[in-house]
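Hi all, long-time lurker, first post. I run a small reading group and we've been trying to get comfortable going from sequence to structure in the token notation. Rather than ask abstract questions, I figured I'd post a concrete chain and ask someone more experienced to write out its structure so we can walk through it together at our next meeting. Sequence below, copied exactly:
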Amino acid sequence: MAIAIGNKILLHFELGNESYGLVLNDLSQIIILDNILKLPKCPPCIYGVGNYKGVIVTVVDTPYIFNKIKPEKFYIGLLNGKYSHIGLIISDKINTIAIGSIDTGDFQYNSDNNTSMEFLEGEFLIENKLIQIISANKLYNYLLESVNYYLRKEFGLLT
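-- Answer (accepted) --
Happy to help. Here is the structure in token form:
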């Protein structure tokens, strides 16, 4: 379902009963990783790592972050630019939506997991469906903080 109503294009997917989107400019491609290695003593937001064309990709457990059940079948959305080694778990049911702008005002966020709001860039309402837009930059900063915390905890550097 591609709806042309603006100048940004979102990759739309669902986790649980909620809709999410990523601005396509934040993605380089959507892939399938068959062999994802789960790492011991890793933050729960990291699903594991995989090899894609010789590049080690850190797979982010997006459903965990948003307190949703992981879909049985899923794709990995590879982020762009300096985040190109990061892949997000997204459902296998995806489409694109063209939008005009993202509302960055007060969120009408209705999830049980309000802590995940910090990863959102904004929201967009289309056909009575609220699509929550994930910020690649905010998510990346959260991952750095989580990994840093776990490493400090693992090596006894917490005070």
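A couple of things your group might point at:
The chain has one domain: 8-154.
Residues 8-154 form a domain with the OB fold (Dihydrolipoamide Acetyltransferase, E2P) fold (CATH 2.40.50.180).
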